[in-house]
Amino acid sequence: MKNIQLIAVLILSFVFVRFAAAHAFLDHADPKVGSTIHDSPSQVKVWMTENLEPAFSKLKVFDAKGNEVDKKDSKVDGATMAVSLPKLSAGTYHVSWLAIATDTHKTSGSFDFTIQ
Known about the structure:
The N and C termini lie far apart (62 Å). It is built from one helix and eight strands, in the order H-E-E-E-E-E-E-E-E. The protein is of the alpha+beta class. The protein is elongated and about 65 Å long. The chain is 17% helix and 40% strand. It has one helix at residues 2-21, and strands at 26-30, 36-37, 43-48, 58-62, 75-77, 80-84, 91-100, 106-115.
């Protein structure tokens, strides 16, 4: 009986891992999440855990007042998204992303970075 329970747990664990892997989550970013940098970056780039659907995935950058400051040219290449930036002044900036994986699962999130 214990062997059957163990097998059932292993099968369910595999199913849940496969389900979670089907979503595009943030892997890392440049500038790094929560970082403080000294120079204005020319772009923000994020790497996701799954390939993205370019027509529906977006990356935006906002200033402390909530104004969008990126150049509105968000691009997707496989599992990465990037958006160009003008020269930004010192302050905290909020990056917001919407990712639609090629399997149509939707995720979103945000992070901040600061320019000194």
